[in-house]
Write a structure and sequence with these properties.
By secondary structure, this protein is an alpha/beta fold. The chain is built from five helices and seven strands, in the order ααβαβαββαβββ. The protein has one domain: Rossmann fold (3-Layer(aba) Sandwich). Strands 3-2-1-4-5-7-6 form a seven-stranded mixed β-sheet. Strand 2, helix 4 and strand 3 form a beta-alpha-beta unit.
């Protein structure tokens, strides 16, 4: 796994041992950053002004890719010690130690933020409901700027033919982090959604005026 473009292009990234880390596939990462660089709802200038939060960071591939392409700063959150060691090695390899902060924490119980972040990546383990739990916790602790762009990866809902003995899982719906789950509010409009095999990437914008 390597950085795709920018100042650290071609740098190989270390992954922690074992199977607990599931890095975003390179094809998905390429598509995400193509959209960020060229979409009318973001663009190169917005990326270069971004304060990035890579939650459930693992290897840090998403945050490091953003830094490589010019983002101002990134915070990486990771709960495992092997993951933290890999992140530290990857930051050194990409020569980005001064542009980043590492937080060894559970994303669903984060510390108070020193500043809000404007570009949020969430790529947690599947089957644990961690995108909603993590995003709401991050909002409560001040990590998400109003108007922040949120990019979440979840498992694609299986087709009925794949699980004939049970109902297919409900597809993930985007939500505004400041609203309680019990509030009957329409979901925010998706700016983009892409399927990559077993994964689906959802992109929307946080809007606390809702």
């Amino acid at each position: 796994m390597r950085i795709i473009a920018g100042s650290a292009r071609g740098r190989r990234l270390q992954a922690p041992p074992g199977v607990t880390t599931r890095p975003t596939a390179q094809r998905a990462r390429q598509t995400i950053f193509d959209m960020l660089m060229h979409a009318p709802w973001f663009g190169r200038e917005a990326l270069e002004e971004a304060i990035v939060l890579d939650a459930f960071a693992g290897t840090g591939a998403l945050g490091l890719e953003a830094l490589s392409r010019g983002a101002k700063f990134a915070t990486f959150m990771e709960g495992s010690r092997p993951g933290m060691a890999a992140l530290q090695a990857n930051l050194r390899s990409c020569k980005m130690e001064t542009l980043a902060r590492l937080r060894h924490c559970d994303v669903t119980r984060p510390p108070r933020a020193s500043q809000p972040h404007t570009l949020i990546f969430l790529d947690p383990p599947y089957h644990k409901g961690l995108v909603p739990k993590g995003l709401r916790a991050l909002w409560r602790m001040g990590w998400i700027a109003d108007g922040a762009l949120i990019i979440a990866e979840t498992e694609s809902a299986p087709l009925p033919s794949e699980h004939k003995d049970k109902e297919p899982e409900e597809p993930f719906q985007p939500f505004h982090a400041h609203l309680l789950p019990s509030i009957d509010a329409p979901p925010p409009p998706l700016l983009a959604q892409r399927n990559f095999g077993a994964a689906t990437v959802h992109i929307w914008r946080q809007d606390s005026r809702t």
